[in-house]
Design brief:
Aspartate Aminotransferase, domain 1, 4-stranded antiparallel beta sheet, 14 helices, L-allo-threonine aldolase activity, low-specificity L-threonine aldolase, lyase, EC 4.1.2.48, ArAA_b-elim_lyase/Thr_aldolase
Length: about 375
């Protein structure tokens, strides 16, 4: 009998559905680097239409998608991009825009709701009078939903306003929309309308949508033509990629309609965690599929809690030295949530009564499998 595992580390952990596997096996394929894979072509055309853009490009990962976008927009040495100080591009993508692209990041403080103050964005734009001394601002990046801010949604009004600022200053706007469909569903705004102001958008297919691999990058035809060259430069050109696009097509077709239920389950989980007195969680701030909670008892650390939960086959991820992150996806059931809550309560009790010993490694560090 297979042991029950409730995996709340991320929405990237889903397994391909039977429908995805069948579509992969039956996919009509050819060489996509030569522009000949029919399944990839159909999927890219459909995603471009869905997102309201002229063209689309399938790429192996969201990190590559964002990197390509920044490099296309900032194709002149000495370029600068304005982005949030807590954004995924800035924090979790190996500094690729700088190390690979030579693009200078200009960070603006992210608010708890994932936005950056509009006035601070404007203040961060370099004056053309300082071109001799300073980098040249060419791009603004937003993230929707904003992962480090708890899966918060950027509204269409806010996005439009930032788009107006970009256009008024001759800049481009890129949206890291890894979970843009979560935002669209939560806000009740069609996804094409939500990203209308953006010149480019990266959409992750392997997070909440549940595809096994890939992201899609959308923009104008001229933008995607340049992006295709950079994808090849970065080693992202794949051959019979239709087998992956077929799974991604099924993911978009079948899973977008399930995202609202993921959001509902996240609320249920947050309400349950709220009842545990050692934690604080603002359930009203849970907008999509992420739940962050702070640990108020100094005897309990995120590492220790996650390790004790792992013994009970509940997999979780520390978010900081004082907080833990749970992420919902369509393969987590209501029963799984109740089981996880029971395990969390038992783990807290075990730690407080001295049963939860944190395992130490030979080098003196604590054992923690969960990186961002």
């Amino acid at each position: 009998m297979v042991a029950r595992v409730v995996d709340l580390r991320s929405d990237t952990v889903t397994k391909p559905s039977d429908a995805m596997r069948a579509a992969m096996a039956a996919a009509e394929v050819d060489d996509d680097v030569l522009g000949a894979d029919p399944t990839a072509q159909r999927f890219e055309a459909e995603m471009a239409a869905t997102m309201g853009k002229e063209a689309a490009l399938f790429v192996p990962s969201g990190t590559m998608s964002n990197l390509i976008a920044v490099l296309v927009h900032c194709d002149v040495r000495g370029s600068e991009v304005i982005l949030g100080d807590n954004s995924h591009i800035h924090v979790y993508e190996n500094g690729g825009i700088s190390t690979v692209g030579g693009v200078h990041p200009k960070t603006v403080r992210n608010n708890p709701d994932g936005t950056m103050d509009v006035d601070e964005i404007v203040a961060a734009i370099r004056s053309k009078d300082g071109a001799l001394l300073y980098p040249t601002t060419r791009l603004i990046c937003l993230e929707n939903t904003h992962a480090n801010c708890g899966g918060k949604c950027l509204t269409v009004d806010y996005t439009d306003k930032v788009g107006e600022i970009a256009k008024g200053h001759g800049l481009q706007l890129h949206i890291d929309g890894a979970r843009i469909f979560n935002a669209s569903v939560a806000l009740g705004v069609p996804v094409d309308r939500l990203v209308k102001a953006a010149d480019s958008v990266s959409v992750c297919l392997s997070k909440g949508l549940g595809a096994p691999v890939g992201s899609i990058l959308v923009g104008s035809k001229a933008f995607i033509d340049k992006a295709k060259i950079l994808r090849k430069t970065l080693g992202g050109g794949m051959r019979q990629v239709g087998v992956l696009c077929a799974a991604a097509y099924v993911a978009v077709r079948d899973t977008v309609g399930k995202l609202a239920d993921d959001h509902r389950k996240a609320k249920v989980l947050a309400e349950g965690l709220k009842k545990i007195k050692q934690f604080t969680v603002d359930s009203s701030s849970v907008e999509t599929n992420m739940v962050f909670f702070d640990i108020m008892d100094s005897r309990i650390t995120p590492d220790k809690l996650c390790q004790v939960l792992e013994k009970r086959n509940v997999l979780t991820m520390p978010a900081s030295s004082k907080s833990v992150r749970f992420v919902l996806h369509y393969q987590i059931s209501d029963s799984d949530i109740q089981y996880a809550l029971t395990c969390v309560e038992k783990a807290v009790e075990e730690i407080l009564t001295g049963g939860g010993k944190l395992e130490h490694l030979a080098n003196g560090t604590t054992k923690n499998y969960y990186g961002h």
